[in-house]
Amino acid sequence: MTTDNITYREKGRAVLLTAMMVLSVVAMSAAFVGGAAAAENNDVPRFHDDQTVYPDDTIFQGEDDIDFSDDFTGDRLIGLESQGAEGKTLSLPVDEDQRTGRYGDGDGHTVLVDEPRVSDITINRLNSDDPNDIATDVDGSSISTADAEHMSIVPEYNYEQAEYAEITVEDEDGSDVTNEVLSGDAVVEDGEAVLMDLSNEDAGEYTITVEGEENLDFGDAVGTTTVELITDDELGLEIASDEVVRGDNLQYTVTSGSDSDRHFVTIDSSDFRDGISLENAEKIFRNVDDTENVGVYSNDGNTTDIDDLESVDDVDFVWAEVEMDGTSAAGSIETQYLDDSSIDLEVYDTETKNASDADGDDPADDLSFDVTEGDISIDNPDGAYVVGSEVDVNGTAEGSDEVALYVRDNGDWELIEDEINVDSDDTFEEEDYALSEKDDSGILNLPGTYRFGVIDQNDAEEVWDESDSSISTSDFNQGSSATKSLRVTEGGLSAEFETINGEVAEDADGNINIFGSAEGEDKVVVAFVDDRGNTEAYSYSVDSDDYTFDEEDVPLGLSQGTVSGHVLVDGRDGEWGDSEEIESGADNLADWINNLGSGSKSLTGDQIRDRIASKTVDETASDDRMVTDTFRYTDASTTIESVYSEGNEANGINPVALNDTIVVEGTTNIKPDDNTITVEILDENGDVLETTDTDDWGTDGNWTLEITPETIDDLGTYTIESDDGETTDRADLEIVEEIDYGDDNKGDSDDNKGDSDDNKGDSDDNKGDSDDNKDDSDDNKDDSDNNKDDSDSSDSSDSSDSSDEEDSTPGFGVGVALVALLGAALVALRRDN
Known about the structure:
alpha+beta, Immunoglobulin-like, five-stranded mixed sheet, 53 strands, flat
């Protein structure tokens, strides 16, 4: 190889290496430029840059004037599965209602579509021009002009990648005052603070709006808040009313303050209600609303705990510390513990840092309000009361937390009960309240007319006698009170022993039902005594609502015969007789009576009845009461008294025409519902043809049944039988072809009423053909011509209707008898032939 060849080869290598280096530099430069472009795209919104959307960017609903980069394979993207936009397409510009989610070109390049939102707008009160020197936030609140010089607006939004947000400030009239009150550009980045000064603006509500500077000015991309600007008036006080009923809460407001500042509000002890406790004094200012603390300030110059004080006389004033919420602070006063007069309320400026400062400083503002006594009314009791009874005591008491009940005869008012709560609607009520039992003075235990009163609890405590809580008439009337007349009476006693026809069936029932009323009583004693001196006694409760008692199936267990039943109550004094032999209480009397019947003295029934009366109602000065009744205690008995065709009522056992409905009447001494009376019709063989039953009859023991024959086809005599499960009774029943009752037996018509005594009798004269019967009276002119001509038939019919049962021929009329006689004569003639 020559030197020239080597030189050419080396030169070629050098040229190739130089070309590769140049290409590398170009490639690196291109990559750098692309990276720089992407970095620049991330730092500034697309609206302020090349408006190009690159893979993995977030774009927003409503975004306009943008294009996809060349990285995407097309201008239409498809929603990706499980990415929120499946099945949707995306093209530019983005619709305002475009489905949010991720879209792609199918070649791995995607973008995310999101909803533009303003998430928060904070308005801060600053201590200086430094936006980080924040005193408090006041958005949605208020601020005074003195504090409005240094303020900031801090928006938070999510669409900074697309465009910046712009702030607009409008006054109460809707005028745009943005350029006047903002220091700096109104277009801000997410989280950037913009300074604002409202100190020179008019009072009113200012609206701050944040929205996209270009396209994003719809829906949640726009956010607003307000701040109330209040002029620099002096600190003041306002109250809900200049007059309040004592006991009602009074709302007060400290005005024209600065947000978060604290102020003391006070009431002097000279405005306290007489006789209140230290605990009540501490409750005058309620710890509610913007109140931070409440307390008392003592005369010796110490803000102290009430436990360190001996009485309310050691208190100089009470105080409340309130914190301003914006430019105002609300609090509340419990007027129950204030005097019924004009009350002074004072508020102090921020220089008063504690209650001791308020003792010497002058108030920034003060006002007065009047406290008046509330009205009390009594709704119930309504003017009458039965000794021992339970009633509802209720009424209204404006402004009272508690009331006390009193009664008066001729002297002072005597306490019945105190500390009865009054509800928030100014009503009080004590249900099922036994006035006479609560009245320790005993006034309401005696019949008479008295005064019943209700008084405010605090008023009562101010004036009552410490020994017995009594109140003089003048003091009672001066307090917040109400009275009414109350007539007190003794309760009545009534009782009824439920028997059937005056009897109780031992074998069927063996028990008895008792019901009645006993006003003012909580229990009654029920006792039974038979003639042999056996007793059964029980105690039963009385319904406290209507003072009735109703006991079913009270067992007897006595000897048959006459039994006396007694119901006793112990009256007003709650004692039996003179209480020497029988202890108080219904159970004790019942035991005592049972012991009389089971003792070894072998007392008769009358002797035991005398003992019961002598130790209770007949005892000297006794107010016991007793109701007594007698009945028969015997075997069950059910009898058949009458049988007749329906519509033809008659006493006794009467024949019934074939196919007529049969009415059966009878009497019993067994109780309905628990027992059943069955009636059967038997044939000559004792087989049951018809049956029916009933369990419904009254206490008179009378029962009625109707039988519609369905299997009785033949004329003749049958047996009708009643059965109550304990006893039976039978009677013969004649079933006949027909019964001619005639006009006389079909009701109480004027025709029947006009019959003479001659027609009513059973004599043979009526059965004959007398002229009197042949001549039809005016009453019988409605009879048919056949009846007029056939006087014998008419007479016979009248006689049959008027005669007793013994003269009738059930089942065989006169015509049938004549036919039978003619038949017998024909038979005799044939035999002769």
